[in-house]
């Protein structure tokens, strides 16, 4: 399979799925990041699936616009674990409603 293709149509390339540990032939298994509103103060709770033996970094950018180069900043690092789990982080640092997040794995 080619790394730049997306045969299951889930929006993630084979390469992205390989790095994230998801199944490139299963459209229901793909890298994802959810931002849920906190019931306490409105700061987002960020949640994503973690696959065993992979470390993850949660990053943010204050806003993505057409005329700016993204300046991604580190928010949290999740070390590798032996089992799959859910990564969760509550962002208490945000005061910007247009903050954008991403999860990367080295």
Question: Describe it for me?
Answer:
This protein is 7% helix and 33% strand. By secondary structure, the chain is mainly beta. The radius of gyration is 15 Å and the shape is globular. It starts with 13 loop residues before the first helix and ends with a strand. The mean pLDDT is 86.
What keywords describe this structure?
three-stranded antiparallel beta sheet, 106 residues, mainly beta
Whole-number average pLDDT?
86
C-alpha Rg (nearest Å): 15 Å
Helices and strands, in order, run as HEEEEEE
The helix/strand class is: mainly beta
The beta-strand count equals 6
Question: Mind summarizing the main beta sheet?
Answer: 3 strands, antiparallel
Percent helix: under 10%
Distance between the termini: 21 Å
Main sheet strand line-up: 1-2-5
Poorly predicted runs are: none
């Amino acid at each position: 399979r080619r790394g730049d293709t997306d045969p299951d149509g889930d929006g993630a390339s084979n390469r992205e799925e390989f790095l994230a540990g998801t199944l490139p032939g299963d459209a229901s298994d793909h890298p994802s990041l959810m931002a849920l509103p906190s019931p306490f103060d409105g700061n987002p709770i960020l949640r994503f699936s973690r696959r065993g033996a992979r470390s993850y970094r949660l990053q943010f950018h204050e806003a993505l616009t057409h005329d700016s180069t993204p300046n991604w900043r580190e928010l949290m690092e999740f070390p590798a674990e032996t089992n799959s789990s859910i990564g969760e982080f509550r962002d208490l640092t945000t005061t910007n409603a247009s903050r954008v997040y991403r999860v990367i794995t080295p």
